[in-house]
Structures are given as structure tokens and as C-alpha cells.
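Structure request: Glycosyl transferase, Aphanothece hegewaldii CCALA 016.
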Amino acid sequence: MEFIDFSIIIATYNRPIQLTSCLEALTQIDYREFEVIVVDDGSSESLQPIILPFQSRLKLTLIEQKNQGPAAARNAGAKIATGDYIVFTDDDCIPQSTWLTALAKSLQVNPNNLVGGKILNALPDNPYASTSQGIIDVVYDYYHTVSKPLRFFASNNFALSREAFNDLGGFNETFWASEDREFCDRWLQAGYSLTYIPEAIIFHAHDLNLSSFWQQHFNYGRGAYRFYQIRAKRGSEGLKVEPQFYRNLVLYPFSFPSVNQFFVSFWLNLFIAQLANLFGYFWEKRQFITKKSKLFY
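Returned structure:
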């Protein structure tokens, strides 16, 4: 089989401890050769002391830029990538040793597909991290088994052709969240496909509290409004409300073997997430209408 040449792109912002763990995990990857590009999106402290110890263990490049958001940071990494295929992950993710091998096996069979791996929660005792990951689990399971074709992969664990990524213009930099959802939709509109590879595993250590959990889902709501506006502009069919998806979301805690406090915390946090999403959606809509109205004065 042909060797897949990978460039791993990691966007980071003010999380040096998490980045250190991520880079340490990459030193244990069983793949024979790959490059790593870390894009510092305006962190308050220099990452040079973090990067330096790994430069003898990894083919590692650091890019520094002003804070422009994760979409812009990932695009900056893709611009200097030398691999034929680029892989995106985040600074708070811990890839498993066989991660790249699993992605490569799929790309060798389907070289023109965007392939996404499995994301596991590294912080099961954090109720907010557990809820956020639970929502992703339901999305992946639903669109993989119930409502095909697949529509979306989170940008902390997917790989694709660098040429195809650049041809599509990369991530939309007006998005500060949900840019992966918009990109995957554009990818499908261009006639490409998505493939799920559950063997390509990362652990996600997203250490959320109530405030950051609210902000995360508020930003998802903002991204959702932008996403629907973009789809409408290009004449795409409207997305349908799928009751079974929401049913699966509510029933998600029952997939665990025993009843515990996670049940209550998941449902409470799910309500908070949906409320934050709704607030974010209408906040972004108001911003859009206000900006549009100013054009007529």
C-alpha cells in the first residue's frame, strides 16, 4: 500500500499544559513519519519553552499569530503543510498510538474522502465535558447508523487531502465555532464523501466549567445561524428537524450500564446547552440584522 504523508495541525490558545500532553502523545505514535504544525493563536505566554523539548523528538514547526480564532489558525497551519494529507486535532486531545495508522488505512482505500475518527471523553468526572462529548456521541451514532449519509466530523479528529482542502478554501474564518460543520457541509456539496473510522481514537480532555460550557454552546448557536445563512445563500435545501435525533439525545444516559448521578447532570446540562445554543443563535441573528440595517443609512 502507498505510504500516506501526513501533516498534523494543532491550533492552540493559552493551554500550554494541555499542549504538552498532546505533543507527548504524538511522540508515541506508531506511524513511521509525519510532521506536526502547532499554530499559536495569540497566547499570552510564549510557547517556545513548550515546543523546544519536543523538536528533537518530532518534526515540529511553530507558527505564531494574533488571535484570529481556530478556523484562521487551522488555515495558517494548512498553508505551510508539506504532507499530501492534513490531520486536524486540538491541543487538549490525546491521540492514541495507532491513530494515524487507522486514518491511513482508510485513506489508502478512499483517498478522496474526508475521514473522521472516534472521540472519547478523557474527563468522565467533569459533568460539562461529559455532556458535551455525549452530544457528539449521539450525533456520530445517529448519522452513522440512522440518518445516512454522514454530515459532520468535529475538527479535533479528521484527515483529508491537503489539495482538496485548499481547493475548497479551507475553513470559513468568519466562524469562531462550528467552522467544522460548515466545512463538512461544503465538502459534501462539492461531491466528496465522509468516512467514519472508529479505530482512529483520540481522548478529549476539555476541562469545562459552567461558564465555559455556556460559552461553548452559545458560540455553537452563533455558528448555527451563520451556517443556515450560508446554506440559504447558495440555495441548499433546508435542514429538516429530525425528532428521532432529539429522542436519542434525551435517551443517551440509558446507554450506560447503571443509573447514577450522570443521568440528572446530563439532562440538566443538556437543557443549559440547548438554552445557550438558542441565545447564541438569536444573538447572532440580531447582529446580522443590525449590521444589514446600517447599510441603508
